């Protein structure tokens, strides 16, 4: 069996940015060192080389330097509407294979109104929905 050089790309809670007034649960979806260590060890137990690389602004440089055969991507990223799609987009640009969903799937899945429109367009069952542009916007009475 071929042995791979694997980059585990993730975002540690302890490395996330913090600011005054930030909600306490802002980074609840990021990973712990325990999770990262367990994943690295699981990949290494298959005989592969594996290193954790933080999926932040430095990811382009660190991935190029590490030269992985494949990236095990569980990045959430920190900012933007389609933040989970950012690292896969970079990996596609660098032509590095990665695990998980592709860029369009991640970006679309994070845009709930667009996802609902696509489902509705294809006559797939989905509950009625309403997109609110303002906090004082009234609920559509047809809902």
Question: How does this model look, in words?
Answer:
This protein has 143 residues and is an alpha/beta fold. The protein has 5 helices and 3 strands; from the N terminus they run E-H-E-H-E-H-H-H. Helix 3 runs antiparallel to helix 4. The longest helix has 13 residues, at 33-45. The termini are far apart. The mean pLDDT is 90.
Pick out its properties.
single chain, alpha/beta, 143 residues, 3-stranded parallel beta sheet, Rossmann fold, 36% helix
Q: What sequence of helices (H) and strands (E) makes up the elements?
A: EHEHEHHH
Percent helix: 25-40%
Ends: how far apart?
Answer: 56 Å
* CATH class (first level) name of the domain at 5-101: Alpha Beta
CATH fold type of the domain at 5-101:
Rossmann fold
How do the helices and strands line up, and which of them pair or pack?
Layout: E1 5-10, H1 33-45, E2 49-54, H2 59-66, E3 70-73, H3 83-94, H4 103-110, H5 112-121
Parallel strand pairs: 1-2, 1-3
Helix pairs in contact: 3-4
Give the structure's gist in a few sentences.
The protein has about 140 residues and is α/β, with parallel strands linked by helices. It has five helices and three strands, in the order E-H-E-H-E-H-H-H. It has a domain at about 5-100: Rossmann fold (3-Layer(aba) Sandwich), CATH 3.40.50.20.
């Amino acid at each position: 069996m071929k042995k791979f050089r694997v980059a585990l790309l993730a975002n540690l809670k302890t490395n996330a940015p913090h600011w005054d007034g930030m909600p306490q649960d802002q980074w609840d979806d990021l990973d712990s060192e325990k999770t990262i260590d367990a994943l690295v060890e699981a990949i290494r137990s298959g005989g592969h080389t594996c290193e954790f690389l933080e999926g932040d602004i430095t990811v382009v440089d660190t991935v190029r330097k590490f030269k992985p055969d494949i990236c095990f991507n569980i990045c959430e990223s920190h900012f933007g509407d389609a933040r989970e799609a950012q690292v896969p987009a970079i990996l596609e640009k660098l032509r590095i294979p990665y695990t998980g969903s592709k860029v369009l799937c991640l970006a679309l899945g994070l845009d709930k109104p667009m996802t609902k429109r696509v489902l509705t367009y294809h006559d797939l069952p989905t509950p009625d929905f309403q997109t609110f542009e303002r906090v004082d916007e009234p609920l559509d009475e047809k809902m």
